[in-house]
Amino acid sequence: MDEETIREPGSKGSKEYSVQGFTGVQVSTAIEFEIMHSADYSVKAVGDDRLIKRLKVEVSDQVLKVGLDSGVSLFGGLRSNGGLKVTITMPQLRRLAASGACKGTAKGFSSSDDFNLELSGASQAQIDIEAGKTALEVSGAGRLSGVLKAQDTAFKLSGASRCELSGSGGDTRLDFSGASRADLSGFEMKDLDVDLSGASKANIKMDGKLNAGLSGASSLEYAGNVVLGKTSTSGASKIRQAEDTPR
Description:
By secondary structure, the protein is mainly beta.
């Protein structure tokens, strides 16, 4: 298909898609998304009619893939003045991947199944999810916020990404690099393994054993009932206890 550059908003339109049988969602190309729990599957796109005509929606290996045709280029301001929003309902969400400056929410899901989330390319997501073993990867200035209750959790942040979550994470691992930051002071964790580098920063709350390695002017501030295990710092990095934590 020929390339098309869309600079200004056009006529509004909408379209519903008859797809089902997916447990994961993958969105790309500056799409706004809203994912909600429901017993029924549904997918609806609302926005600029030209974008809807170039929207690809398909299910492959139980993953719903939503994105614009590779020949479409968007210019700034279009999303806020027309753009494209896709609303999705589904019974179960086990994977969410967003890339290319997408922004949206995923809420209302409660399960003991594993959950994986990937945000890249300045994408943003706000979640409200209960899950089993959970892996969260945020890169390229991505942003993750919301509420998560997980049995065990692994965070991987890179490229100046940000994370702010409340809830609980069980035994947890933090792996941050490239000036990434997380406020997890409202996210209760048990045993914790931490690896921070490249001026990364984390504020945490936990009840268990803390193993931590920091380098490159990184910082870790902890609160809760903490037993210090193996810790190391280099390059002006710091590990410190929050001032309001009982000693």
